Amino acid sequence: MKNKDFMFWLFLAPVLFALGTVVLIPLIYGIYYSFTDWNGVNQAEFIGVKNYIELFSDQGFLNSLWFTFKFSIASVIVINIMGLGLAMLVTSYIKSKNLLRTIFFMPNLIGGLILGFIWQFVFTKVFDAVGRATGIEWLQGWLSDSSTGFWGMVILMSWQMAGYIMIIYIAYLENVPKDLLEAAEIDGANAVERFRNITFPLVMPAFTVSLFLTLSNAFKIYDQNLSLTNGGPFNSTKMVAMDIVQTAFQLNQMAQAQAKAVIFFLIVAAISLTQVYINKKKEVEM
Amino acid sequence: MVNKKAFLLSSALFLGLAGCSTAEKEETSSDSSSGGGDKTVVDVFQFKVEFKEQFEELAAQYEEANPDIDIKIKTVGGGNDYASSLKSSFAAGEEPAIFNIGGAVDVQQYHERLVDLSDTKAAGAALEGTLDSVTEGEKVLGLPFNQEGYGFVYNKQVFEKAGVDPASIKSMEDLTNAVKTIDSKKEELGLDAVFAMAAKEKWTEGNHGSNAFLADDFNNKALDAFAAKEVPFTKADQFKTYIDLQNKYSVQPVLSLDYSQQVEELFSTGRVAMIQQGNWVYPTIEQMDPELAENVGIMPIPVDGEMKMPVGVPQYWVVNTKVDENIQKEAKEFLDWMYTSDEGKEAVLTKFKFIPAYEGYDTEKISDPLSKTIYEYAQEGNTKGWTFLGYPTGWGDILGVQLQKYLAGEASWEEAIQAAQAEWAKARQ
């Protein structure tokens, strides 16, 4: 028995080591620094919770928190509807569904930074050209005000993530037993009723996973934000991750940025865990 | 048996991890020459990517002449990346002998690491004013890289065809009239608009634009700006006229127009007549269209009916106190050689294509027209200081954001300026 214990820890050791050095120790360090006045170069001095108190009067941080919040809600909804829609499309009886699966998944293989630049071109050049040619005004001047910046980000994020989420839904959709659906059909249930009462509850576990992934990803987004809008115009599309990076590396307020990061970590953890807890309760077992 | 296998497996994993880390180590330290044991190694950590190769060539030339010196150069791309990698290299215990700082604000931040360079020949040869922001009493803590200047970079051909003489522009009214003339003929001239205003980049107006109008408030000295508790903004009205003029006659929407669109897509292709930028755009224009590059000129931003070119030193070389004294000495000698020896001067002018910040250079060798014009202004003393180097950290961006708000109609001019002033006061409490 003792031998087994040893084996257990031995196999775990590399992972524990990696996790410790890249996650746990930096986290502890980070929390420590958030209570100091460290600017990246000087000797850190302990100043208590001053950094945290200052956060509440930092309008820039609060604005970006609020923007991130709005963005996350919008993109979680759009991504999941698109993901589920695409999944249902490619699990139905249409031709070329395998090809379609690949195509829908492809945006996910492109890095966020590059995607941002691609979409920047689409929004500022293609949209503009189409808008000018057809005289549609709302297609012109994208990314130059805060609402098009917001929707630009949502579109970019949805386009990138929907294919990935689709894969998760496909896995669950294909596991919905055909006989159940058939029986319901014979009992006279129409397509909407079949979806609401059979498919939907059985796909619930996929929602748990997908909502978690989209929620935490949407909150932590940085590279897409950087390349698409860079926070502009007038910082109205600056998300929390970008605010933290700028506080740390442009304003040299490392400790202040660290305090922001700790708060941000707590918020993301709280929201994600609550969401998983609620969703778990709603899942049904076959 | 099983035990043994497991052990092998996990040790293999560990080896793998260890392998990764050593590989990285090697990469950082294995620059240039073989680095023999008894050579004095001078580590240089510099930010200017544009002249990396030329700089390495010059270092190789120096090594040839001084066989017991090994100059190791590490270049990390401009702006933020540089400062953060410099800090992480300090944190990791790697202390370069020579590195770069930006000015007064950085002097304060890196103070404990800066060696006094007042005994170097280069410090003696530095042009008047270029050492201001790194001088502390008798001490000189940095040596200027070069000089740079900015203003309106314009297309001479367009001006000629429109019948506007750039030399006749002496004030904001003249400029406005010239812009109107060009604007009325933009169809024939093949222009999209007169200006391309890169309002997406907060620094173009937040740092450079504002400096033209704030320099007088700070006696043209970055150090005065650095010491100022408040920003008076006495020329806010003129600044507004200048912003409005650009915005009115620019390619729209200005708020999503960035630096590369401004310089590459619009100016270099001849689709706009003028942009607010500096001599650093020249290599890009030359690369895009060598013909057009021969026809670019630069004029200052008119303030109070005066045409003064804002000229400044963007970066300084400094020597690190945390390396051996012997290495400090060699580092100083290398910097001296680069800026005061004949070979060094030649390279600074013809290879680095710098506008020199030191005396005793043959200015005929300055190759591009923008740099030449700027050097002429500098020689006549017809310049303004780069006071934005003394703004509170990040304040240029804050002002840039407020200007974006104004341009988007989210704030009035007064609100924008007041908000920026309040941030300044807050940062200097």
Describe the structure.
The complex is a heterodimer of chains A (286) and B (429). Chain A has 286 residues and is mainly alpha-helical. Helices cover 75% and strands 0% of the residues of chain A. Chain A has one domain (57-282): MetI-like fold (Orthogonal Bundle). Chain A is built from 11 helices and no strands. The two termini of chain A are 37 Å apart. In chain B, 45% of the residues are buried. Chain B has 2 domains: 31-147 and 313-360, D-Maltodextrin-Binding Protein, domain 2 (3-Layer(aba) Sandwich); 148-312 and 373-427, D-Maltodextrin-Binding Protein, domain 2 (3-Layer(aba) Sandwich), CATH 3.40.190.10. In chain B, strands 7, 8, 9, 10, 11 and 13 form a 6-stranded mixed beta sheet that branches. In chain B, strands 2-1-3-12-6 form a 5-stranded mixed beta sheet. Chain B has a two-stranded antiparallel ribbon with strand order 4-5. Chain A binds chain B through residues 3, 6-7, 10-11, 13-14, 17-18, 39-41, 124, 141-146, 230, 232-235, 246, 248-252, and chain B through 2-3, 6-7, 9-10, 13-14, 17, 80, 83-84, 87, 90, 109-110, 199-200, 202, 252-256, 393-394, 397, 401-402, 404-405, 407-408, 410.
What topology does this entry show?
The complex is a heterodimer of chains A (286) and B (429).
Chain A: H1 2-33, H2 50-55, H3 59-91, H4 97-105, H5 112-134, H6 146-173, H7 178-186, H8 191-220, H9 223-228, H10 240-249, H11 254-282
Chain B: H1 2-29, E1 40-46, H2 52-65, E2 69-75, H3 80-91, E3 98-101, H4 104-109, H5 121-125, E4 135-136, E5 139-140, E6 143-144, E7 148-155, H6 156-162, H7 172-184, H8 186-189, E8 193-195, H9 202-214, H10 222-227, H11 236-248, H12 259-267, E9 272-278, H13 282-288, H14 290-293, E10 296-299, E11 309-312, E12 316-319, H15 325-340, H16 342-351, H17 369-380, E13 383-384, H18 395-407, H19 413-427
Parallel strand pairs in B: 1-2, 1-3, 8-9, 11-13
Antiparallel strand pairs in B: 3-12, 4-5, 6-12, 7-9, 7-10, 7-11
